[in-house]
């Protein structure tokens, strides 16, 4: 008999550890922990409905969702197995290394970059190591493009479990010698790109109701003022503070 547990991690009356021994008695068990209190059917009705539908569909012969695969007790998987991860600026450097690392740990990865050829190359490297990746072209400084990207990604692959807002650029030079458009471009990409990514994906993660993570890549430059990198240092300091503020706001929804 298949059994699915939906465990309310914030329930003050029925504590989560009370379910821990269930697997001893139930051979076919799925467990989903949600950040909810005792009355989750009223506070998170869509989450519970989706969980039930996904299990019923699977038992009827349909392919399992990523969430259902993760919930299956006793199923072995890698650290990020059965997860969808989106990484911006994944065509090179830190973004590419991050995408490759997630793929090695079992994640399905959406790689985006302003250079579409570079994004496709990263996806090819992931495929060569046995992973699954989907390349997209994206300028994170374009708010409308980021929203369209998020809509397309979620329609084609589902809501990502982890979003890594990594895309960034540098501009060296003294402030008085830097043209305004160059200074502004650094802020638009490094900070504006993070804001655009969070604005596009945070509502979708919250609406899904099962948590997730948004990773905003800052830099030690946030704490190290340099006269030759005023735009870059400013943008990274803004990313750091914005991320702390957003973390506090989204905590109740289980999005970290």
UniProtKB/TrEMBL annotation:
It holds the Pfam family adh_short. InterPro entries: AB_hydrolase_fold, NAD(P)-bd_dom_sf, Sc_DH/Rdtase_CS, SDR_fam. PROSITE patterns: ADH_SHORT. Gene3D superfamilies: alpha/beta hydrolase, NAD(P)-binding Rossmann-like Domain. Belongs to the short-chain dehydrogenases/reductases (SDR) family. CDD domains: SDR_c (cd05233). It comes from Mycobacterium xenopi 4042. Keywords: Oxidoreductase. This is Short chain dehydrogenase family protein. It comes from the Bacteria. GO terms for molecular function: oxidoreductase activity.
């Amino acid at each position: 008999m298949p059994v699915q547990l939906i465990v309310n991690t914030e329930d003050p009356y029925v504590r989560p550890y009370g379910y821990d021994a269930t697997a001893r008695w139930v051979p076919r068990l799925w467990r989903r922990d949600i950040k909810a209190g005792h009355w989750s059917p009223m506070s998170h009705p869509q989450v519970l409905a989706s969980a039930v539908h996904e299990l019923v569909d699977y038992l009827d012969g349909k392919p399992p969702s990523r969430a259902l695969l993760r919930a299956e007790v006793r199923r072995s998987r890698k650290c990020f197995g059965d997860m969808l991860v989106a990484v911006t600026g994944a065509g090179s450097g830190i973004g590419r290394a991050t995408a490759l690392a997630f793929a090695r740990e079992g994640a399905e990865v959406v790689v985006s970059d302003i250079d579409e050829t570079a994004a496709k190359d990263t996806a090819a490297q992931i495929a060569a190591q046995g992973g699954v990746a989907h390349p997209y072209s994206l300028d994170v400084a374009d708010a409308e493009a980021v929203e369209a990207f998020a809509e397309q990604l979620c329609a084609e692959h589902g809501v990502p479990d982890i979003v890594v807002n990594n895309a960034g650029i540098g501009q060296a030079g003294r402030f008085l010698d830097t043209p305004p458009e160059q200074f502004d471009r650094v802020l638009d990409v490094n900070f504006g790109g993070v804001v655009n990514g969070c604005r596009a994906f945070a509502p979708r993660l919250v609406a899904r109701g099962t948590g997730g993570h948004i990773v905003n890549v800052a830099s030690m430059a946030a704490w190290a003022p340099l006269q030759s990198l005023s735009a870059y240092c400013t943008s990274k300091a803004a990313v750091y503070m914005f991320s702390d503020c957003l973390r506090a706001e989204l905590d109740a929804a289980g999005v970290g």
